[in-house]
Write a structure and sequence with these properties.
Thioredoxin_domain, 15 strands, five-stranded mixed β-sheet, alpha/beta, Thioredoxin-like_sf, signal, Thioredoxin_ResA/DsbE_sf, Redoxin domain-containing protein
Length: 378
């Protein structure tokens, strides 16, 4: 556990408080922070034209949002089974669908992060949800700037982003009723560029060039085995402090995984703790030398999700876990998509030739054994 937590961490931990009064106050602070982050994420979207998107639901149907623009408004709720406020809002969400479902296209989009078809389907049945439900692979999050859970997104009949928020409050319901009441335009709008799906790398695939920048502004290059394809980068032509010939281990994680998921997803929480402890143990040798440094034959890079995470949060996290090595903030979600990562933790190894040689996530039955072996051979 961190010696000091960021404001977000304090709020999320406090939201799990057992005392009723303390819990109510904590949830109020938590909701306010979620609202702030959601508004910040949606600031650049409001008033702009929504993109063309095909959303596949659990029942096998496909919703083409571009066919709705100009005729029917859209409400997308971004959520997760492990998210406490999402769970709290679900009865009201179902009631909203029953009341407005004929007037607005309602879609529940699961984050896909530390969730899968099994967990989402089980939650759907237990909660009695009847609206269309989809599981994101990162495409929707990138296209619609989803950054918190829950996050509400309204698209009006003109096909424009009309509202983004986190709280299930009066402001949201007024915006909902407004997009329903508005007249449809005489001419259907032209949607913005189609949001493309990125096929993630799998074992045996060769990487296109990748340049990365840590939260400490260090530059890193991951070995490239394929010169074809668009390079992935979160740096602005930053000089690399690492050799392109190094084997690279990428640890995909969420800084809140261990403590926030401790009650709702204990297996995920324990898996995150296991990987972090191994990373810390591997990171510093008996002489106190950081094996993540440029002198090591293998470079270890931790890649953080952008969900409920900011660069400031990661700075706080690294202050408490310095031996985890360099941290890359995947601000736009491209790296998670590029490597096909939907679960945290996921550990990926890239050899010196730029080929993916291993990809391990906590859902695998032999996860602990595989991770232990992976860290042992480095």
């Amino acid at each position: 556990m961190l010696k000091r937590k960021s404001q977000l961490m304090k709020l999320l931990v406090a939201s799990l408080a057992a005392l009723s009064l303390g819990q109510a106050l904590a949830e109020e602070d938590y909701s306010a922070e979620g609202e702030r982050r959601a508004k910040l994420a949606g600031k650049g979207l409001l008033g702009t034209t929504a993109p063309q998107l095909l959303i596949k639901t659990l029942d096998g149907k496909t919703i083409d949002l571009s066919q709705l623009y100009g005729h029917k408004p859209v409400y997308i709720k971004y959520w997760a089974t492990w998210c406490a406020p999402c769970r709290k809002q679900m009865p009201g969400f179902e009631a909203l669908y029953q009341k407005y479902g004929e007037q607005i296209q309602v879609i529940a989009v699961n984050t896909g992060l530390s969730d899968d078809l099994k967990s989402v389907s089980a939650f759907k049945d237990k909660a009695g949800l009847s609206m269309p439900i989809a599981i994101d692979d990162g495409t929707l999050a990138r296209a619609l700037n989803f950054r918190v859970t829950p996050q509400h997104l309204l698209i009006n009949k003109r096909g424009e982003f009309a509202y983004v928020g986190h709280e299930d409050d009066g402001n949201f319901y007024r915006a909902l009723e407004q997009v329903i009441a508005e007249e449809a335009p005489e001419v259907a709008p032209t949607p913005s560029v189609i949001a493309t799906q990125i096929k993630g790398y799998d074992i045996g695939d060769k990487l296109a060039p990748i340049s990365l920048k840590s939260i400490a502004n260090q530059g890193f290059s991951v070995p490239a085995g394929n010169s074809v394809g668009a390079p992935a980068t979160n740096s602005a032509s930053l000089p690399s402090t690492s050799s392109a010939a190094k084997e690279t281990v990428l640890v995909f994680f969420a800084p809140w995984c261990e403590w926030y998921l401790e009650q709702t997803e204990p297996l995920t929480s324990k898996s995150c703790t296991l990987v972090r402890q191994m990373l810390e143990s591997h990171g510093t040798d008996s002489h106190g030398t950081d094996s993540h440094s440029t002198g090591s034959s293998t470079q270890w890079l931790s890649v953080s999700t952008n969900l409920w995470t900011s660069k400031e949060d990661l700075t706080e996290y690294q202050a408490g876990h310095g031996a985890v090595g360099p941290i890359i903030f995947d601000a736009d979600g491209e790296l998670f998509a590029r490597f096909g990562v939907t679960q945290v933790p996921t550990v990926i190894t890239v050899d010196q030739a730029g080929r993916v040689t291993d990809k391990v996530d906590f859902r695998q039955p032999d996860f602990k054994e595989k991770v232990t072996a992976l860290f042992s051979k480095q």
